[in-house]
From TrEMBL:
Keywords: Acyltransferase, Ribonucleoprotein, Ribosomal protein, Transferase. One of its GO terms (cellular component) is ribosome. InterPro entries: Acyl_CoA_acyltransferase, Bact_Acetyltransf, GNAT_dom. PROSITE patterns: GNAT. This is Ribosomal protein S18 acetylase RimI-like enzyme.
Length: 158
Protein backbone atom coordinates (compact mmCIF):
# COMPACT_ATOMS: atom_id res chain seq x y z
CA UNK A 1 0.00 0.00 0.00
CA UNK A 2 1.48 3.31 -1.00
CA UNK A 3 1.12 5.90 1.76
CA UNK A 4 0.05 8.44 -0.86
CA UNK A 5 -3.34 6.67 -1.02
CA UNK A 6 -3.90 7.58 2.65
CA UNK A 7 -5.64 10.90 3.19
CA UNK A 8 -5.56 12.38 6.69
CA UNK A 9 -8.32 14.84 7.53
CA UNK A 10 -10.42 16.12 10.42
CA UNK A 11 -13.20 13.81 11.52
CA UNK A 12 -16.74 14.66 10.45
CA UNK A 13 -20.03 13.78 12.10
CA UNK A 14 -20.73 11.36 9.25
CA UNK A 15 -17.63 9.39 10.34
CA UNK A 16 -19.06 8.53 13.78
CA UNK A 17 -20.28 5.00 12.89
CA UNK A 18 -16.94 4.18 11.24
CA UNK A 19 -15.00 5.60 14.19
CA UNK A 20 -16.99 3.40 16.56
CA UNK A 21 -16.25 0.43 14.31
CA UNK A 22 -12.51 1.16 14.43
CA UNK A 23 -12.61 1.20 18.24
CA UNK A 24 -14.72 -1.96 18.35
CA UNK A 25 -12.25 -3.80 16.10
CA UNK A 26 -9.21 -2.72 18.07
CA UNK A 27 -10.96 -3.60 21.35
CA UNK A 28 -11.77 -7.08 20.08
CA UNK A 29 -8.41 -7.74 18.45
CA UNK A 30 -6.02 -6.08 20.88
CA UNK A 31 -7.59 -5.66 24.29
CA UNK A 32 -10.21 -8.39 24.65
CA UNK A 33 -7.70 -11.27 24.44
CA UNK A 34 -5.69 -9.70 27.28
CA UNK A 35 -8.12 -8.17 29.78
CA UNK A 36 -10.08 -9.88 32.50
CA UNK A 37 -13.64 -11.01 31.90
CA UNK A 38 -14.86 -8.37 34.36
CA UNK A 39 -12.99 -5.57 32.58
CA UNK A 40 -14.40 -6.71 29.23
CA UNK A 41 -17.93 -6.77 30.64
CA UNK A 42 -17.55 -3.25 32.09
CA UNK A 43 -16.21 -1.93 28.77
CA UNK A 44 -19.11 -3.42 26.79
CA UNK A 45 -21.87 -2.55 29.27
CA UNK A 46 -20.73 1.05 29.69
CA UNK A 47 -20.12 1.47 25.93
CA UNK A 48 -16.77 3.03 26.74
CA UNK A 49 -15.62 3.19 23.12
CA UNK A 50 -18.92 4.55 21.83
CA UNK A 51 -19.09 7.22 24.52
CA UNK A 52 -15.49 8.22 23.81
CA UNK A 53 -16.30 8.73 20.13
CA UNK A 54 -19.52 10.62 20.91
CA UNK A 55 -17.68 13.00 23.25
CA UNK A 56 -14.38 13.49 21.43
CA UNK A 57 -14.83 12.88 17.69
CA UNK A 58 -14.52 16.60 16.77
CA UNK A 59 -10.92 16.43 18.04
CA UNK A 60 -10.02 13.36 15.95
CA UNK A 61 -8.09 13.18 12.72
CA UNK A 62 -8.94 10.23 10.50
CA UNK A 63 -7.03 8.32 7.88
CA UNK A 64 -9.12 7.60 4.82
CA UNK A 65 -8.36 5.11 2.06
CA UNK A 66 -10.57 4.88 -1.00
CA UNK A 67 -13.33 6.82 0.77
CA UNK A 68 -13.38 4.64 3.90
CA UNK A 69 -12.11 5.37 7.39
CA UNK A 70 -8.96 3.31 8.00
CA UNK A 71 -7.93 4.71 11.38
CA UNK A 72 -8.06 7.58 13.83
CA UNK A 73 -5.79 9.62 16.05
CA UNK A 74 -6.64 11.93 18.93
CA UNK A 75 -4.28 14.21 20.81
CA UNK A 76 -4.50 16.98 23.39
CA UNK A 77 -1.58 19.35 23.87
CA UNK A 78 1.52 17.11 23.48
CA UNK A 79 -0.18 13.85 24.49
CA UNK A 80 -1.55 11.38 21.94
CA UNK A 81 -4.67 10.02 23.61
CA UNK A 82 -5.54 7.38 21.03
CA UNK A 83 -4.25 5.80 17.83
CA UNK A 84 -6.39 3.05 16.32
CA UNK A 85 -6.19 1.39 12.90
CA UNK A 86 -8.76 -0.98 11.35
CA UNK A 87 -7.48 -4.55 11.44
CA UNK A 88 -7.76 -4.80 7.65
CA UNK A 89 -5.53 -1.71 7.26
CA UNK A 90 -2.79 -2.55 9.77
CA UNK A 91 0.68 -2.82 8.29
CA UNK A 92 -0.16 -0.44 5.42
CA UNK A 93 1.35 2.78 6.80
CA UNK A 94 -1.87 4.14 8.32
CA UNK A 95 -0.50 4.38 11.86
CA UNK A 96 2.71 6.03 10.67
CA UNK A 97 0.81 8.58 8.62
CA UNK A 98 -1.53 9.43 11.50
CA UNK A 99 1.39 9.77 13.93
CA UNK A 100 3.24 12.05 11.54
CA UNK A 101 0.14 14.22 11.13
CA UNK A 102 -0.33 14.54 14.91
CA UNK A 103 3.36 15.24 15.51
CA UNK A 104 3.34 18.09 12.98
CA UNK A 105 0.26 19.61 14.68
CA UNK A 106 1.78 19.18 18.13
CA UNK A 107 5.01 20.87 17.00
CA UNK A 108 3.05 23.68 15.29
CA UNK A 109 1.32 24.29 18.63
CA UNK A 110 4.74 24.96 20.17
CA UNK A 111 5.45 21.67 21.92
CA UNK A 112 8.95 20.15 21.70
CA UNK A 113 7.85 16.57 22.29
CA UNK A 114 5.00 14.17 21.69
CA UNK A 115 4.03 11.65 24.36
CA UNK A 116 1.86 8.53 24.29
CA UNK A 117 1.20 5.35 26.22
CA UNK A 118 0.64 1.70 25.49
CA UNK A 119 0.65 -1.45 27.56
CA UNK A 120 3.49 -3.97 27.77
CA UNK A 121 1.47 -6.70 26.05
CA UNK A 122 0.86 -4.49 22.98
CA UNK A 123 4.10 -5.34 21.20
CA UNK A 124 2.80 -4.27 17.79
CA UNK A 125 2.26 -0.68 18.93
CA UNK A 126 5.61 -0.60 20.74
CA UNK A 127 7.36 -1.74 17.57
CA UNK A 128 5.73 1.06 15.57
CA UNK A 129 6.49 3.75 18.15
CA UNK A 130 10.16 2.75 18.38
CA UNK A 131 10.45 2.58 14.58
CA UNK A 132 9.31 6.19 14.22
CA UNK A 133 11.57 7.55 16.95
CA UNK A 134 9.71 7.21 20.24
CA UNK A 135 11.78 6.33 23.30
CA UNK A 136 10.50 4.56 26.39
CA UNK A 137 10.54 6.93 29.38
CA UNK A 138 8.61 5.19 32.15
CA UNK A 139 6.54 2.19 33.23
CA UNK A 140 3.74 2.22 35.78
CA UNK A 141 0.62 0.26 36.72
CA UNK A 142 -2.30 0.60 34.30
CA UNK A 143 -5.35 1.64 36.32
CA UNK A 144 -7.72 1.85 33.36
CA UNK A 145 -8.36 -1.85 32.72
CA UNK A 146 -7.99 -3.27 36.24
CA UNK A 147 -6.28 -6.28 34.65
CA UNK A 148 -2.79 -6.06 36.16
CA UNK A 149 -1.19 -4.42 33.12
CA UNK A 150 1.86 -2.22 33.05
CA UNK A 151 1.67 0.97 31.02
CA UNK A 152 4.66 2.12 29.00
CA UNK A 153 5.16 5.87 28.46
CA UNK A 154 6.92 6.87 25.24
CA UNK A 155 8.23 10.29 24.19
CA UNK A 156 9.57 11.67 20.94
CA UNK A 157 11.48 14.93 20.53
CA UNK A 158 9.94 16.97 17.72
Amino acid sequence: MAEDRIIVRRAQATDIPALKQVLQETFQGTWLPNITEGAAQRYVESDTGGRYVDQSWPEFAVAEIDGGVAGLIHWRADFIEALHVMASRQGQGVGRKLLSHAERAIAAAGFVQARLETDTFNLRSQTLYKAVGYVEKDRYPDDEWDSGFTTVLFEKRL
